[in-house]
Design brief:
This protein has a 16-stranded parallel beta sheet that branches. The termini are far apart. With about 190 residues, it is mainly beta. Helix content is about 0%, strand content about 55%.
């Protein structure tokens, strides 16, 4: 027999809409706050969603937790009142992720200092730190890595300043990665 592969539909790209800017807030489950008019979560008719987030403050308030493909974040504040799971990674270039739990799989890249406050980040995928110099985080939280946490950049020194619990791989492929937040490394550390 001949088997035919049919491509799956690409994920829906949801972008925050509505009022944006300093002091503007919104909730995740409000469909009017998204460009597609649909709340981005896999529990929404089984649709896949990528989310672009650039300004204002948005609270992830889906009680059972939300699941999307990727989060592209370049600014604003994401408040995790309930867990958020990213199946295909986080592309972070600015902003704050506060409170709650962020579960990450897939391929992620962080190119700017992330502001956190009581945030628990659980990485089971490939997390690449690409900022040139400075602290990886501002504020307090925890980072658990069961995947791969890698520092890539041309030269420079980056300080990983949250407690790190690692059962995966931590490596500095280029530049210098300094771990100052404490924690436990039971996986592999490589330079």
């Amino acid at each position: 027999p001949t088997h035919r592969l049919h491509p799956t539909a690409p994920p829906t790209r949801s972008t925050e809409t509505g009022p944006t800017g300093e002091g503007v807030t919104g909730i995740w489950r409000d469909q009017t706050q998204w460009s597609t008019g649909v709340v981005p979560s896999h529990s929404n008719n089984g649709n896949d969603h990528d989310v672009s987030f650039a300004s204002c403050t948005r609270t992830q308030d889906i009680t059972a937790g939300g699941t999307i493909n990727q989060l592209f974040m370049s600014g604003g504040t994401l408040v995790l009142a309930n867990p958020l799971t990213l199946n295909d990674g986080l592309q972070f270039s600015g902003g704050a992720i506060t409170s709650g739990v962020l579960n990450i799989a897939g391929t992620s890249s962080q190119s700017a200092t992330m502001t956190v406050n009581g945030t628990t980040i659980n990485n089971a995928g490939y997390y690449d730190i690409t900022l040139a110099n400075g602290n990886v985080f501002s504020g307090g939280g925890t980072f658990s890595n069961s995947g791969s946490l890698t520092r890539h950049s041309d030269g420079g020194t980056v300080t990983f300043n949250l407690p790190l619990t690692d059962s995966g791989i931590v490596s500095a492929e280029s530049g210098t990665l300094i771990l100052t937040g404490g924690g436990t490394i039971s996986g592999t550390a490589a330079a």
